[in-house]
């Protein structure tokens, strides 16, 4: 069972399907679900997302991959202790979203020295910064992915770069000491300010509830 059909979830599904596993991907975006169906051509199951859906499929799982991501915000806790009690003893939970707080109630950050722990008979793997297991490869991949943005910043400066590149604009969290990222503001119940040099309205309201 894979929770989240983004980059991590999709690649986990590819590996699992390639190994002959029966794979269920739970994804809240129907557009993304359709994309997964196009990629896998019926080789995985994409049920309609709901809490009752988790009640039904988690007890069947040998392996659960938590690949949930809300950009800039804390990950919602989708798996509860009650869910774990219904799962198979000896089943495994890999919470990739642990860097954003984890998607399971019982998840807690681990290290490569002590990478696993057991709760309710379920083996938890919640190592933070999982790409650190292959530092040279992950560093090269990160450098290749970020180099175009570095060149844009170096060529145009931060203000102009943010105006011409939406990705850079979305990556700005603070500007002159003021919080400008909506997701971070919502997660911490703080006020969010609009970037002064961007036309798009980021908002300047205070979140009523933390995630």
Automatic annotation (TrEMBL):
Family stated for the protein in its record: Belongs to the AlaDH/PNT family.
Domain Alanine dehydrogenase/pyridine nucleotide transhydrogenase NAD(H)-binding residue range list: 1-126
Superkingdom of this protein's organism: Bacteria
One Gene Ontology term of the molecular function aspect: alanine dehydrogenase activity
GO annotation, cellular component aspect: plasma membrane
Species in which this protein is naturally found: Candidatus Hakubella thermalkaliphila
SUPFAM superfamilies recorded: Formate/glycerate dehydrogenase catalytic domain-like, NAD(P)-binding Rossmann-fold domains
One GO process term, biological-process aspect: alanine catabolic process
Protein's recorded name: Alanine dehydrogenase
InterPro entries, per database record: Ala_DH/PNT_CS2, AlaDH/PNT_NAD(H)-bd, NAD(P)-bd_dom_sf
